[in-house]
Give the backbone structure.
Amino acid sequence: MKQTPRFVEPILDSTRSSLNPEYLDRSVEQYAAGNHKEAFHLLLDYLNDTIRPRFGNADGTEFRIPHGSILVCIRIDDGKLSIRADFLTLPAKQRTAMLRQVADLTLNRLMLSRFRKEGDKLRMEYECPLSQSHPHKLFFILRNICHVGDRYDDEFCTKFGAERCYEPRVTPYPEAETARIVEAMRTVCTETLDAVKDYEAARRYGYAWNVLDTAFYRIAYFAQPQGQLRNELEQAVDDMDRELPITDLVAKGRAFLEKLRDTPGEALAADLYFTDTLVSTRRRSSLANVQENMRDVWREADEAMQNRDFERSAVRILYKFYEMYFYNDVQDDLNDLVRTALRSSAGLPAEEASEILFEAIDRIMEGDLGDDGAAGGTNRIGSLLHAGIERLKERLQRLLSKEE
């Protein structure tokens, strides 16, 4: 990698979560006090405080909440809480094959809820006494139903010819943005395939694996696709972690990017739209969790910098930054820091880029996410001194262990 890949401006400026932990705490308190209906209302407010006024009835006992391509229907009645989400209408052909995979989803993907078949229609459902509707439990049940429904209905429509029970409410990206993103996807595919070709020729398969996985994360980050394109990207990421020889993983990842590069523009554009979301399938980021996840790469990148292996440092930090966006709804201060680093390091030689990227990951590990004003600059100097001392300690420990 002679230069770091270019930065593509994302379709969404903010990546923060809609979750509000204050409402969840209050929900748990109300549940403990025996106010189960109020606890559930506060759980919905935790997910998004616009849900109840937009999708509920006047007395808060019925909700019809869209999430992507499914509609989640919730009812509180006679001391019970029931959740239902119509899934798909079975196809005239291949229904047996599809039902086998639905059975597999029930066993391996659904949590507490289940599929029910009524005539030609399938739906997911869960019911419990209101007194057993603990907010934490219901959060994971709702998240699970939303994830399974919105992911696998696209896959089953494409694979088996099933039909949706609910047509999602979508807002396509503006035409100019769609064209920009489609072109950017092709460019990322081409640039990555060129880099992989060079790495394979040099038998540097670890680097090839990293830039391929990073490319999947990058596309998901700036395009925020829906539908089958999102499913295929998620599957491509999963495939890169399979228990296979690394050469096979690289070949599989390369084949996916080649296919994506050659996909007609109108097919890619069909999955570029905004839609309603009840529960994000990404985690809400926290600095502590991000630090824990990045710690090993931070140390690896620091050692690479000391050895003047700038390419390794840049490749690994880029991988970790884009991975963070793939699995998390990232808070604004962290997003601002990382996005600035990605934008500033784009297209630079590895040595220059690695300095910018390492400073960003170093600031994350030191918890320094603020602006660099006068006070911020003073704090930054302190953080750098502290980080430098810690790195010197670690290197000294490594040297001593080698001497032993």
